[in-house]
Amino acid sequence: MDPLPPDAIQRVLFISPSVHVYAIPPLTSTKGYLAAGWTSPSVHQFPPCRLRIVETAIPTTSTSLTSTSSTSNPTVSNTSETLTTTLLLEDPSTGDLFAASPYTSPAAIEPALDSSRFFAVRVVGEGGRKAVLGIGFEERAEAFDFGVALQEVRKVLGMDGGGGAKGAVGEPPAGRREGKENVAREGKVEKRDWSLKEGESIHVDVGRRGREKKEEGHGVGWIAPPSAGVGVGFLPPPPSAKEVKEEKRREAQEMGFDDGEFGEFQ
Length: 266
What we know:
Layout: E1 9-22, E2 45-65, E3 74-90, E4 97-102, E5 109-111, E6 118-124, E7 130-136, H1 140-157, E8 167-168, H2 174-187, H3 208-217, H4 241-255
Antiparallel strand pairs: 1-2, 1-7, 2-3, 3-4, 3-8, 5-6, 6-7
């Protein structure tokens, strides 16, 4: 790899201590790569490597001549940075570089069609020589984190339809800047003034009118009163003691036991 300038800033986006590396056969189908045969004895397997995704920001400046009546010295303007992302396969013990893959398009790193733990990586060696290597993760969760890191890179570099990767110093790249603008727009809440203006008032109806409206609307639990002439099922009151005595006297007279001399029939 070419040496970096002293003002370059690098950031590690993802790291895996050990991944399997395979010398996979050439692609025979336009659909994609199949990892089913990568682990067979006929496929050469390299020693495990450490994998890192490194983001590099290199500041760049452009100058322009400004002519005035007092001076014609050049002034510096439009300071920006160039952002690149590279996948590195390194020796886990010494850190020596084994292979590098500049992530310039989604086709540089493709997931296998038959497994979520395997990926095909297009590496570039010395002299511009290119090859395709297969990498495999032991854990599915680690492969998932690797895919999420690549998705974030594509968003920042504008591979998913966003902006470019260059931005002025002090400003994030286009993808990050767009995300912050979206958060700022979502955070804005329209404030409305609900206070009463001069001369305005609030009128509330209370008392009988409210009850009449409720009765007319027949709210929940309302029961209509019984109509006239319809019985409601009440029993008549019991007869008094005087009425009972008169009833007994009348029955005795009808049976001929009371002649008026022996008093009330017992």
